Automatic annotation (TrEMBL):
It comes from Actinidia rufa. It comes from the Eukaryota. Residues 45-160 form the Semialdehyde dehydrogenase NAD-binding domain. Belongs to the aspartate-semialdehyde dehydrogenase family. This is aspartate-semialdehyde dehydrogenase. The lineage of its organism: Eukaryota, Viridiplantae, Streptophyta, Embryophyta, Tracheophyta.
C-alpha cells in the first residue's frame, strides 16, 4: 500500500477533517440518529469530571464513537456548571457539582478538570474504590502512578484490575508527549533511540475551549483592523506564533518542554535517553504538529522506518514527496490516528543512524480524550 492510498483511507475514516473544531457540532448535542446506546447492566459505572470543558466534551464523543459500555454515567463539573443539562446517547443528564461523595459506586472516573482538582479529588475517588484516569499533570511523575499510552506501554498498568474493589490512579501523558511517542516508539523498538530533538507547533486547543474561542475572535478583530482581545494569552495569537505559555524554569526550558523530557523517560523506562524540546504556540485551532529528529543506537534506513510506521497501531503515513504532501493539523483534526510524514535520513549523521520525521495529531482526541478512553478500555 503506497502513502497516497494510505492517506485516502485515512480521510475516509471519519468526518470532514478540514473543518475546525469550533465549526463541528458539539458532542453534547448529538442528533438522535447518532445514538449508540452503550448502556449495559454488566458494564462498569462511569464518571466524567470536568464534563463541560473541551476535553470533557471530547470524552463523551469518544465514549460514544467507540461504544464504550457503561451501566451508568455521572456528569461532574464545578459549582458554576452544576444544573446544566446534557443529552448523551439519547438520554438527558443533569451536571452535578463535584463533591467528595460523587464517587460512591463509580468504577471508572475520567478526570479532565485541571491539576488542582485532580490532586484534591483523585485520591478521594481512589479511596472510594474508583479507578481514576487523570488527564492532568498532577500524578504523571509519581513513581507509584503508571503513565500510559496504550499502544506504547500497556504493561505499565497490568497490575490494575477492574472489579478488584481497589481504587487506583492512572495518568494520561501530556498531549505533545503522546503525539510524539506514537511515532517515535515503533522506531525506538527497532533501533533504540539514544537522542531525540523535538520542536512542537501547538494549537489553541491545548489551552482549552476559551483559547480556541479567543483565536477565532482575534482573527476577526485583526482582519477588521481592531485591537485584538488578549485575555487568555498576553500577546496577539492570530497571525502570530510565540514560545509556549507554560512557565519558564531556571534551566531556560518551560514546563511543557520538560514534560516531553521527563515523560518520555518514564514511558520508555529509560532514564538515559537524551531528549530536548522547544515548544511553540501556533495559530491553529486544534491538532498539534511536531518535528522530531532521532539518533539511534542501531542503523535504520528511511524505507525500513516507513514500513515500520505504516504497520504501527494508531499511526497513518502521509508521505508523498512527489506532490509535496505531508501531514497537516487540519487533516488530523477530529481523527484518532497520528499522521507521520517527511520521513528521511538525517544527512548530518553518517550510516543511517539518524532520521527526521514530522508528526501531527489531534490534541483533544489522541492527545487527551481518546488516550484516556483507550486506557479505560484496557480495564474492561
Amino acid at each position: 500500500m503506497n502513502a497516497i492510498t494510505t492517506h485516502h483511507q485515512f480521510l475516509r475514516s471519519g468526518g470532514d477533517a478540514t473543518l475546525p473544531r469550533l465549526l463541528k457540532p458539539s458532542p453534547l448535542c448529538r442528533p438522535s440518529f447518532a445514538v449508540r446506546m452503550s448502556l449495559r447492566e454488566d458494564a462498569p459505572s462511569l464518571a466524567v469530571v470536568g464534563v463541560t470543558g473541551a476535553v470533557g466534551q471530547e470524552f463523551l464523543s469518544v465514549l460514544s464513537d467507540r461504544s464504550f459500555p457503561y451501566r451508568s454515567i455521572k456528569m461532574l463539573a464545578s459549582k458554576r456548571s452544576a444544573g446544566k443539562r446534557i443529552t448523551f446517547e439519547g438520554n438527558e443528564y443533569v451536571v452535578e457539582e463535584l463533591m467528595p461523595e460523587s464517587f460512591n459506586g463509580v468504577d471508572i472516573a475520567l478526570f479532565s478538570a485541571g491539576g488542582s482538582i485532580s490532586k484534591q479529588f483523585g485520591p478521594i475517588a481512589v479511596d472510594s474504590g474508583s479507578i481514576v484516569v487523570d488527564n492532568s499533570s498532577a500524578f504523571r511523575m509519581d513513581e507509584k502512578v503508571p503513565l500510559v499510552i496504550p499502544e506504547v506501554n500497556p504493561e505499565a498498568m497490568a497490575h490494575i484490575k477492574l472489579g478488584s474493589g481497589k481504587g487506583a490512579l492512572i495518568a494520561n501523558p501530556n498531549c505533545s508527549t503522546i503525539i510524539c511517542l506514537m511515532a517515535a516508539t515503533p522506531l525506538h523498538r527497532r533501533a533504540k533511540v539514544l537522542r531525540m530533538v523535538v520542536s512542537t507547533y501547538q494549537a489553541a486547543s491545548g489551552a482549552g475551549a476559551a483559547a480556541m474561542e479567543e483565536l477565532e475572535q482575534q482573527t476577526r478583530e485583526v482582519l477588521e483592523g481592531k485591537q485584538p482581545t488578549c485575555n487568555i494569552f498576553k500577546q496577539q495569537y492570530a497571525f502570530n506564533l510565540f514560545s509556549h505559555n507554560a512557565p519558564v524554569l531556571s534551566n531556560g526550558y518551560n514546563e511543557e518542554e520538560m514534560k516531553l523530557v521527563k515523560e518520555t523517560r518514564k514511558i520508555w523506562n529509560d532514564m538515559n535517553v537524551k531528549v530536548t524540546a522547544t515548544c511553540i504556540r501556533v495559530p491553529v485551532m486544534r491538532a498539534h504538529a511536531e518535528s522530531v529528529n532521532l539518533q539511534f543506537e542501531m542503523p535504520i534506513d528511511e524505507d525500513t522506518a516507513r514500513d515500520i510506521l505504516k504497520n504501527a497501531p494508531g499511526v497513518v503515513v502521509i508521505d508523498d514527496r512527489a506532490a509535496n504532501h505531508f501531514p497537516t493539523p487540519l487533516e488530523v483534526s477530529n481523527k484518532d490516528d497520528v499522521a507521520v510524514g517527511r520521513i528521511r535520513s538525517d544527512v548530518s549523521q553518517d550510516g543511517n543512524y539518524g532520521l527526521d520525521i514530522f508528526v501531527c495529531g489531534d490534541q483533544i482526541r489522541k492527545g487527551a480524550a481518546l488516550n484516556a478512553v483507550q486506557i479505560a478500555e484496557m480495564l474492561l
